[in-house]
Specification:
The structure is a single chain. Helices cover about 40% and strands about 15% of the residues. The strands form 4 sheets. The chain has a 5-stranded parallel β-sheet, with helices on both faces. A 4-stranded parallel β-sheet has the order 8-7-6-9, with helices on one face. It has a 3-stranded parallel β-sheet with strand order 3-2-4. It is built from 15 helices and 14 strands. α2 crosses α7. Bound molecules: FE3-S4 cluster. FE3-S4 cluster (F3S) binds next to β10 and α14. The site of FE3-S4 cluster (F3S) has 17 residues, from β10 and α14.
């Protein structure tokens, strides 16, 4: 792979061990995918920061980087951690887990990563521009910035996103190349879906049918930004999909060739997703969790308005960013919700938090992505339904 003088210096260790290690990760990755060169990036989003997911080995890896003195060269944000960094005791997380989690976040902070753990950084100021090259890792954020914004990123792993943040570069391959962004299959939606739940089901269905590639979606008359986010998250969990186009809605849809193969989707088809992801055979739910991906301020306020009218019968978690939570706190809304047994959690989510440790056996979810990973990573049973039916 061709490297500039600056990149060679990093690789040769002239700037120290940390930069050398980061550049080596990217060169190996580039060699695997046949990249000819590196390209500069404008931002990075780093996943794999929950102690539940990365354990002691991951903690050590990040602390080694931080101890080497490296600093990020571009804006870098972090994905959700295993707990709310302030209110972890309210979640029932153990002290030992909390201490390790805080060490992970502190290591990333020392490297210069913005300490707002969230999978929707685009909702609070970290919004790449159309055509910009970035290196993001969280699959739901990757598919959002590629599809809805038209920025360019591959689906990075945690270490490669961190290496990209430290060097300010990423290998030029995959979705950074315009021709690789062309769609393979058209999915025609023959009904008018509404709300994040139905869009999440559609996304999951497309991912199930396609597994990998780029779908071109037609038949949608409109979609909100939140619905597009939820559709992408579903698609990225059932298939390894990192980009979709929606006719007349997403920014690149007009400039790509239309695929020849077409699959039609009827509303009834979504039953297949519900059958697959619903694993609970009881109506007793320990916890209903919203916010996969993290909800924005508008969505949390909508839930707040709903709960004021009809308080929930079950314990509820709402997962969001610390930016949203601090606004709610300043207005006294988090306290009001807590009195209704609704906990607003920042920095974390129902998938990366140690739910089994905190005694959850059955969980109610309105997100196919959360249902998918709860089923595959835990023994917790899932009740998947539209939010209003869960509470
Ligand atoms: Fe975000 Fe956690 Fe879902 S990281 S996309 S809320 S699994």
């Amino acid at each position: 792979m061709y490297l500039t003088k600056e990149e060679e210096k990093m690789l040769d260790g002239e700037y120290g061990e940390g930069y050398e290690k980061a550049m080596r990760i990217l060169v190996v990755l580039g060699d695997i995918y046949g990249a000819e060169r590196m390209i500069p990036i404008s931002s990075s989003q780093i996943s794999g920061i929950s102690y539940k997911s990365i354990g002691d080995a991951g903690l050590e890896f990040l602390e080694d980087f931080a101890n080497s003195g490296v600093k990020v060269k571009v804006t870098a944000t972090m994905n959700p951690a295993g707990m709310d960094l302030e209110d972890w005791q309210k979640m029932g997380v153990s002290k030992e887990f909390a201490e390790k989690q805080i060490r992970i976040v502190n290591a990333l902070k020392r490297i210069g990563v913005v300490p707002i753990p969230s999978c929707t950084p685009y909702f609070h100021g970290f919004y790449p521009r159309f055509g910009e090259h970035v290196a993001w890792a969280e699959s739901s954020a990757v598919i959002f910035v590629n599809s809805v914004i038209g920025a360019r990123t591959n689906r990075e792993g945690g270490p490669s996103a961190l290496a990209a943040a430290i060097t300010g570069r990423t290998p030029y391959y995959g979705l950074h190349i315009p021709e690789n962004r062309y769609p393979n299959v058209e999915f025609k939606i023959n009904f008018e879906p509404r709300g994040r739940y139905e869009f999440s089901l559609i996304g999951y269905y497309i991912g199930m049918k396609m597994r990998k590639g780029i779908p071109f979606i037609t038949g949608l008359k409109s979609a909100t930004i939140e619905e597009l986010r939820s559709m992408g998250a579903g698609m990225a969990s059932s298939g390894s999909i990192a980009l979709y186009h929606v006719e007349k809605i997403t920014p690149e849809a007009n400039n790509v060739p239309r695929p020849k193969e077409r699959i039609e989707i009827e509303k009834n088809d979504l039953e297949e997703v519900i059958q697959k992801l619903n694993t609970s055979d009881t109506d007793i739910i320990d916890l209903v969790a919203f916010g996969c991906p993290h909800l924005n301020l508008k969505e949390v306020l909508d839930l707040y308005a709903y709960f004021k009218e009809s308080p929930p019968k079950t314990k509820v978690w709402i997962c969001t960013s610390s930016v949203v939570k601090s606004y709610l706190k300043s207005k006294g809304i988090t306290d009001e919700l807590e009195k209704m047994n609704v906990l607003v959690l920042a920095d974390t989510c129902m998938v990366v938090a140690p739910l089994e440790q905190v005694g959850v056996h059955t969980i109610g979810l309105d997100s196919t992505k959360a249902a998918h990973y709860t089923n595959s990573l835990t023994n917790i049973k899932v009740k998947l339904a539209e939010g209003g039916k869960l509470i």
